[in-house]
């Protein structure tokens, strides 16, 4: 397992369009998913130990962000042929098991991960109501092992986005497993 860190926020970068199928059978785009104050786009998967270790905190934070007008969506872009745990059927099971309060969608071609420049799971992109990037950082300081009383970087940043339309100037990159790209033949 290679641990990667994505670049930090490129403020104002516009959310790329997508139209992806969710585990509930519905189609999702940035526009039909965005809340009145913004949208959190998360690149996650089922098998990554980093994602597994923060699932409960992601669910907690995304539920609370709904109260601030921030909706969320999770995109799974890994090569599910090589990583069966990340199959669409397993995505459905995980979303149900953890009662995801957000759409969990499949980037089957991996094009959306490429468009966004996603490099790892988890990789978080926080947009304001105009779908301009305001946050690209970590969930919190605890990394894989939950630590008590650490600042909730992602949650606090997205509350700030909800209130002001702008993210914090200082952000610390997320860290996780590399996206599992399909081999090019």
TrEMBL record:
Domain Thioredoxin as annotated: residue spans: 9-160
Cited SUPFAM superfamilies: Thioredoxin-like
Domain of life: Bacteria
Transmembrane segments: none
Matches recorded under PROSITE patterns: THIOREDOXIN_2
CDD domains found in the cross-reference section: PRX_like1
Matches recorded under InterPro entries: AhpC/TSA (IPR000866), PRX-like1 (IPR047262), Thioredoxin-like_sf (IPR036249), Thioredoxin_domain (IPR013766)
Pfam families membership: AhpC-TSA
PANTHER family xrefs: OS07G0260300 PROTEIN, THIOREDOXIN-DEPENDENT PEROXIREDOXIN
Name this protein carries in UniProt: PPO candidate 1
Organism expressing this protein natively: Candidatus Nitrotoga arctica
